[in-house]
Amino acid sequence: MSIKQLFKISSAGLIVNRSRSLLTILGIVIGVAAIIMVMALGKGAENLILKQIQGIGSKTIAVEPGAESRNMADFSSLFTDSLRERDLEAIRNKTNVPHMVSVTPVVMQSLAVSYDTESKRTNVLGVSEDMLPMFDITPEKGILIADEDVKGMSSVVVLGAEIKEKLFGFSDAVGEKVKIKDRSFRVIGVIGKKGQVGMLNVDELVAIPYTTAQKYLMGMNYFQEIIVQTDSEENVLGTVEDIKATLRESHDIDDPSKDDFQVHTQADAMEMVSSVMGALTALLVAVAAISLVVGGIGIMNIMIVSVTERTREIGLRKALGATNSNILSQFLLEAVILTIAGGVIGIIIGALLSLLASAVLSQTVSSGWSFSFPVSAAVVGVVVSSVIGVIFGLYPARQAAAKNPIEALRYE
Amino acid sequence: MALIEVERLEKHYGEGEERTDALCDISFKIDEGDFIAIMGPSGSGKSTLLHIMGFLDRPSSGIFRFEGKTIDEYSDDELAAIRNKKLGFIFQSFHLLPRTTVLENVKLPLVYSGIKESLWDEKARAAIEAVGLSHRISHDAVHLSGGEKQRVAIARSLVNDPKVVFADEPTGNLDSKSGQAVMEIIQDLNDKKGITVILITHETYTAEHAERIIRIKDGMIDNDSKVSNRHKASEFLK
Hints:
The structure holds 2 protein chains of 2 kinds.
Chain A: H1 3-16, H2 18-55, E1 60-65, H3 85-92, E2 100-115, E3 118-127, H4 131-134, E4 139-142, H5 147-151, E5 156-159, H6 161-168, E6 177-180, E7 183-191, E8 196-197, E9 200-201, E10 206-209, H7 210-218, E11 225-230, H8 236-251, E12 261-265, H9 266-309, H10 311-319, H11 324-364, H12 375-401, H13 405-410
Parallel strand pairs in A: 3-10, 5-7
Antiparallel strand pairs in A: 1-11, 1-12, 2-3, 2-6, 2-11, 4-7, 5-10, 6-7, 8-9
Chain B: E1 4-13, E2 20-30, E3 35-39, H1 46-53, E4 61-66, E5 69-70, H2 76-85, E6 87-90, H3 102-111, H4 120-130, H5 146-158, E7 164-168, H6 176-193, E8 196-201, H7 204-207, E9 212-217, E10 220-226, H8 233-237
Helix pairs in contact in B: 3-4, 3-5, 4-5, 5-6
C-alpha cells in the first residue's frame, strides 16, 4: 500500500468524523497557538528593548561605580561613591583616553518639580553640557545647558515636552522659574516630543548642571554614572581598556579583580537583555508545552474510543486482506494528521493573535513595538505536534492492529 | 488435487474443565468449482469452520490445506494476502463502510491488493455492473435497501477475482424476494464464473441451492451428501 493510498484512507476516516476530529485537535491548536504567541511577543519585547539600547548609540560607553555585581540582588553599586570629579578629569584627558570625543557624568534623584500650584515628582538628572548633544537632543525653544552653567553652578533647567506641559500647560515656559526642592531654577530650554532614547525618556526629562545638582540638591560629591562617547564604533573596545587603565591608575588599583568600577558597552547590555529575554521566553514556552502534552493525551483518548467504535471496520479490513501493519499505519497516520493539522491551525491562530496583540501594544506601550513571526517556533510547532501524534497515536493504533478479525466482525 | 482439504480438524476454546469443543474430527475435500453448503443449527460450529477455511482463525489440531499448503506454512501477512486475492467474503450483516459510496466500498479490497490505483475504478465498476447496481454507484451505502447492500458486498467480494467466495448466512437479514435475488447472483458466480462457493446457512431451503450439503451438529459432521433436487434461484424468480 502506497503512502498516498494510506493517506487517503486515514484522511477519509477523519473526514467521516469531522466534528469529532475538530474537537480532538483543539488541545493541540491551543498549545501551539500559545507557544507561537509567547515566542512572538517575547521576540517583540526583546527587539523593542534592543532598539532602545541601540538608541543610546553604539559609540557610547557607560562607566558605573562599584565592583561587578555578583548577583541580581546586589544593588551596592548604587550606593558606591568611587566615581568622582578627578575620574571625570582623568577620562577627559586625551592622553589617557585618546578616542574620547565627549563625556558626561550623571547624578540622579527622584525629586518634586513645581511651578505655581502644579507639582510633579520625577527623576532630576544632573549632567554636563555634553550630555544632551550626545543623545542628539536639541531644544525646541531656548537653549541647552552650557559649559559656563556647569562651572558656575547655575540654577538653570532644561525640561522635556511632557513635564513642561504638565507644569505650564500651553503657556511659554522659557524664562519662568520652577522650584526643585525649595530652590528656584530658571527654565532655559524646552525639548520637543521625542519619546524614548535609549534608557532615557526625553519627554520626562528634567536636566540641570551636575555641579548644581551635587551641591544644592543631592548633597553628594560622587557620580552615579559617567557616559563616554568615542569617535567611532571600532574604537569602542580599545576605549573601554583605556578607561579601565585610567581609572585603575587614578584609584591606585593593580589587580583588575579589585576594580571598584564597571565599564559597559552597548553590546554588553544587548547581550544581557537577549539572555534574560531568552530565559523568560523558554520558561513560558515550557508552560505552554504542557498544554501540548495534555492535547496529546486528548488525542490518545479519542483515538482509543475511535478504535473501539470502529472495531467492525477493522475486522472487515482484515478479512479483506489488510495486514496488521496496514491497520497500524492507518490509525497512526490518522493521529499524526490530526496533530499536524492542529499544529498548523495553531500556528495560524497564534500568528494572527500575536499580530493583533502587537498592533495593540504598539498603540499602548511603545510605537517601537513590532511584530515578528517566529519562523523557528512555527517549524518546532509542526515537528513537535507530529511527534506528539506518533507518541500518543501509537498505543491506540497498536490496539487496532492487534484486534482479532473474528471478534471484530462479530462486534455489534 | 482438491482445492481445500480438511483432515481430522479440531477447534476448542479454553483449557481443562472450561474447555469447549467447537469442532471435532472434521474431514472433507472441496474441489475447485464446487458449490458447497455447510448447514447446521446455531452453535453447531459452522461459523468456526468458515473462519478456519477463510484463514481468519487457526485450528487447534488437524490439517487444513488450501491449494496443497497447510495454514502453518503461511505467515500472518501471507494469510492477509491470500484473503485479499483468493478469497471473497459475504456476511449476514453486510459490513459495508458507513458514509462511504458504493464505489468506494467495492474498491476496499483493491487498496490492499498492490494493484495499480489507475485500474481500481475499472475493476470496481465491472464488479458493480455484475451485481446490477451501476445506477447506485455513487450512493452512500447506508441508504441502500438490504438486498442492494448485500449485492454491494458481493461486488466487493468479486473485485479481486477470487477463487473461493465464502457466504455466511447471506440471506439471513433479507426478505425472501431479495434473498432469492442474492442467491441467484451467488449461483451465477459458481455456474458462469466457476468460482468455488462455500455457503453457510441454517435453512434447508437456502442450502439446497448448493450442489452438496455438509451438515454439522455439535461440532461434528452429521451428514455429507449431494443435493438431489437442487433449487435454481433464477427459475424461482420467474
